[in-house]
Design a protein that fits this description.
By secondary structure, the protein is of the alpha+beta class. Helices cover about 40% and strands about 20% of the residues. The strands form two sheets. Strands 2-1-3-4 form a four-stranded mixed sheet. The chain has a two-stranded antiparallel ribbon with strand order 5-6.
């Protein structure tokens, strides 16, 4: 049984890498990752693709919607590594971290290129 379904941009190299790392650590299969550009996304009409492309979205087992860094923290917490992201949710850091996340989300293709040399992925392969 999944406890969290994450909707991510499968054309973003860093996003794909994060989801792969998360899946690797998910030994109890608590997380399902859904590329918003895949056919599997059609099973979730309650999630708006445009919004999910703007900010990371997730649904928990109760149907609660999680957004942005709250998704990241909750997901890593489910696989036992929440401590890595917990500081980003601390009261005084959270507003700054959320603004930084929104900047990243808006510029993720350029940032991916700077960090990986790949700007976008298409059909499972990433290119310059």
């Amino acid at each position: 049984m999944q406890t969290l379904t994450i909707f991510y941009d499968g054309t973003c190299p860093l996003c794909k890498k994060e989801m792969a790392a998360l899946t690797k650590h998910d030994e109890n299969n608590k997380i399902d990752t859904v590329d918003i550009y895949s056919d599997a996304f059609e099973a979730y009409p309650q999630i708006d693709r445009v919004e999910a492309n703007t900010i990371l979205h997730a649904l928990d087992e109760d149907g609660r919607l999680w957004l942005g860094l709250d998704v990241t923290y909750h997901a890593w917490k489910l696989v036992g590594k929440g401590w890595l992201y917990a500081p980003l949710r601390w009261r005084f850091i959270k507003p700054i971290a959320d603004r930084c996340y929104l900047y990243f989300a808006k510029n993720r293709y350029q940032i991916s290129f700077w960090l990986t040399g790949k700007s976008r992925c298409n059909n499972g392969t990433c290119s310059r």
